[in-house]
Amino acid sequence: MRTNRLFHTLILLSLCGITTLATPRLTVVAVVDGLTAENLATLRPYWQQGGLRTLSEEAYQTTVAYPHLVYGGNESTATLMTGMTPDNHGYTMDSYFQRRDRRLHSMLEDEQTQGINTNLRISPRALLGRTISDRMRLLYPEAKIYAIGIHPETTVLLAGHAANACCWLDQEQQLWAATAAYSGGLPFVAFEQNHNSRIATLAARQWTPRMDIPAYTCPTEHEKKKGFTYEVGEVLRHAPEANTLVIELALALQKDEKMGTDQIPDLLLLQLNSLSPQAASDKIQSAEHEDIYLRLNQDIGFLMEQLDRRIGRENYQILVVGRPILGTNPQTLNDIHLPVQHFNVDRAAALIGTYLMAIYGHERWIDGGYGQSIYLNRTLIEQKRLTLETIQRQVANFLLDFEGIQTAMPSYEAIHQPQLNTTLCKRHTGDVVFTLQPGWQLWQDDRHPIDNVVDDNPQSPVLLWSRQLRPMPQGSLNALDVVNLLF
Description:
Layout: H1 2-15, E1 26-33, H2 37-43, H3 51-58, E2 60-65, H4 75-82, H5 86-89, E3 95-98, E4 103-106, E5 115-116, H6 132-139, E6 145-149, H7 152-159, E7 165-170, E8 175-179, H8 188-195, H9 198-203, E9 206-207, H10 221-226, E10 230-231, H11 240-257, E11 266-273, H12 287-311, E12 316-323, H13 330-335, E13 341-344, H14 345-360, E14 366-370, E15 373-376, H15 378-383, H16 388-399, E16 405-410, H17 411-414, E17 432-436, E18 440-443, E19 459-466, E20 477-478
Parallel strand pairs: 1-11, 1-12, 2-20, 6-7, 6-11, 13-18
Antiparallel strand pairs: 2-19, 3-4, 5-8, 7-8, 9-10, 12-19, 14-15, 15-17, 16-17
């Protein structure tokens, strides 16, 4: 009876013009650092073939905006992977200030986890939200899920909590590295490439222009005279070979694990790069930056060609999404009379400390400052039997007199502010929170910018290619909705 009912239902759906879509056997998610819709549109006429060319012609395309402040770090990766804002997924910036030792620590630092071919001890433990990989694991417990990338933190965020394994490029040792946080450790094919010195082989190459310099759309004056040359090993994470290595290992894993060859859907998560070593903006402004795109186009094309042959075009889908890293070049903004000015957080914290000394005595009243937070010495305040809320208010009022400050308030008020409540996570927020006026950029000190992206509302391109593409939403999307494109 149930079989007949299902048969008649399928007939009815067919007569109504409705078709059922099978879940692709393999989903590939590629997060590309610095990828912009503007660059893709500019270069499309120059690509006769390749993966980006195919995607630009056949994929569902849109852009996504972020509902929180974007610093050019992995806060956007975490948002894209979880469909949550930083106040929920917990990854607000790449580092956080720890009161215990008054030092900065990696957001994913985990002393309970061992590294493999690396001294880094990182895990997804600090990530609170469920990622794409976690959702896949819940839906399909036997799915094979792997993440491969260039940078460790990005790769771990792609892997989420439920991947079999993840691995990334260790530039110093020129090996694939991993974390023991995942049961699969370092995949065998990664071990094999390490044993065969595959990374070292590519790192020994020179990176020179693939075309004659006049053939590029926007070479610099220096490039017009001398071109560009790099030793790949010195700039590995920003050389085209990094993308090649990620794609090669992804295909080796697909073959070794037979991903996409049975009825249980599998997931490959990749981090790729579109930024050259000298890039000062996500927008292409040099021949070497364009050269990265040319080779990335070929690498993605090679990935798709191999998957076509191995598992068939109808059996996989690929989602490519950009990640804002540098935004608009500050010099470009200066040239059109929109100057970018620096706000030094360390200097601000020192001045606040001096201010409190003048009021309460010569003691260390400030633990430090990082991001948009000032951290008060709570232990001292308690010992002196002072009211924390009173000092928070005094510091906030003092900060309002600083050049570049837009708003300043105690942290207990900041969580109710629309501009901040999606950006702050209470685990890492300081005692006083501030925002900057437009045109100001956060710097930790005189040498280290915290905020790479000075654009007011950076957006990322999204391209979803599938032979079984279901109806997609029209117009631009919120970054929280990218996850839902796959489920």
